[in-house]
Amino acid sequence: MLLLTILLPSLALASVTPNNTLPSNLPIKVIHEFPIGTWIENMALRPSGSVLAIDLSAPNIYEVPIDGNCETRLVHTFTNTSGVSGIVESSPDSYLVVTGNFSFAKFSAVAGTYAVHRLNFDEHSDRPQVKFIGTIPTLIQPNGILSVPETPYLLIADSIAGKVYRYNTETLDMAVYFDHPLLKPAGTSLQAGVNGIKFSRGYFYFSNTNQEIVARVRVSGRENTPVGDPEIVASQTLADDFIVNDYNGDIYVAENGINELGFVSGRGNGTTPVVLAGSVNGTELAGPTAALWARGGEGKRLLVSSTGGIIGYLQGKDTVGGRISLICVEGEC
User: Fold this and answer.
1) Least C-beta-crowded within 10 Å: which of 160, 199, 251, 269?
2) Which InterPro entries does the UniProt entry name for this protein (predicted)?
3) What is the mean pLDDT of each run of 10 residues along the chain (333 residues)?
4) Domains observed in the chain
């Protein structure tokens, strides 16, 4: 999610000399730019390949076509909440969404205001059916969310509690899914522990913003239960969300506070990311929040959401709006 930022002393870690075997300064194609002040927090894909983009700065979900044939449209606006903090596809063209109140003035969540909803699309309407599922009052600051395949479970990372919870969307029961020191906030006034969460290759992956890591733990069984101790696969990274290449384990990290897309080989063992696109002082990838493979483009075509630049956002000095951008990490766009 957001959170990275006021980790300014850590910016010195940002610019890693690229490996000569890897591309760098990859071109960034802006698919859609929202008005200045729009914080695009995360994304999900529709079967058509268009992006469902969620807005943390307003309670809106947008559909952004990536082929340029249609205009971006507002899909839904929630009421009685200030923004949308998470979205994940749970079954074909059905999505779980987390909403709640986030104070940008204090740069913190309002605990007790968060809730889970379901969006269902069908062929009869271009608007989704929206169903309220339940509140999640025990969570302090929900961040990354993840659906457990073929179960009613939604995993929710709480950045301040430093835990990942398992929420049953049928019974509304909630329990701790994973708790470990590598999930905890650490060492700064801005408490920002576990952030993005993903399943890939028999592992549960997670990022921790304060600890500047991406790590993973093996999972087992139908419910993807964590087994054993986690291992760090990337370090010295101001990681917000990220994506894993399911074929080779390569990791692409949205480094929000430093305006960069970082890369760590699937063979990495605590490796510092190489910069593939963006730059600390640039606006071409200002405040990247999440990364997602374009439909049919896994390992090659990467979609990145962004805020317009976190420092500028907080100071009211943004020069670009939140964006959905396309980066081709292999081949041409």
Assistant:
1) 269
2) 6-blade_b-propeller_TolB-like, Hetero-Diels-Alderase-like
3) 44 40 80 93 96 96 89 96 96 97 80 95 89 95 96 97 97 98 86 94 96 96 96 93 95 93 86 91 92 92 90 67 93 74
4) 8-328 (2.120.10.30)
